[in-house]
Amino acid sequence: MSVIDVKNLTVSYNEDPAILNVSFQLDDPSITVILGPNGAGKTTLLKALIGMIKPDYGVIRVLGFDPLKDTFKLRQFIGYVPQRDKIVRNIPLKVRDVILMGLLTKRQWPRISSKSDVDKMHKILELLDLTDFANKTFGELSGGQQQKVLLARALISEPKILFLDEPFNGVDIKSQAYIIEKIKSLRYTNNITVLIVTHDINPLIDIAENLIILNKSIVAIGKPLEVLTEQTLSKAYGGGKVIIVQDRCYTITGDVHSR
User: Fold this and answer.
1) Which CATH superfamily does the domain covering 1-77+161-259 fall into?
2) In whole angstroms, what is the distance from residue 123 CA to residue 63 CA?
3) What global pTM score does this model have?
4) Which of 13, 71, 132, 157 has the most Cβ atoms closer than 10 angstroms to its Cβ?
């Protein structure tokens, strides 16, 4: 069974296609990066995979589930970290409560945390070096700390697939490196599939196993060294440079919007 199987997927907003005729398949646990400029449909693709958006047409299977028909079942197996700037950050919730939501929102009512849930919360606090922040409110934290909390919320349920949407926006370099190392560790320790949406591949180049370059349609898909070329960057971004250093690809692109 494929981990993710997408065929001929099209999603529109007010009859304007956000993604058009997208097809790809991931057969094994891996770290896959979805790369493209602003407005390329990256977040839309992620939301369609989770069942948050209804496609115009096409077929999606995630762990064998139809995200729209089997939404509640599928969400037992996935962790989702949305863009941090889409999160209400001034709500008076403590860090411990935000993290516990990663378990409680996957349940039917009444959603009451158990001793086992609290034990899991403490373990994930330790894993992400957040123990000292457990009783602080989410809004008190720095951008990097908030991103760690959102990652903890996604990981507490021990997902089979982890979806991350622009996880490094507004995150300092130290926290960025820390999060990347944790993602890599989880991939190989827990054998999970990770999909990361980004407009900048460079921080993730050492851990990306697969790369999907998207600009509404798929521009290229494959191993980073195979598909990161100036031709594919031109199709996605309207231009760009590729620099290869010791079998690693680094890119220089403009921060542009899809057209």
Assistant:
1) P-loop containing nucleotide triphosphate hydrolases (3.40.50.300)
2) 27
3) 0.91
4) 157
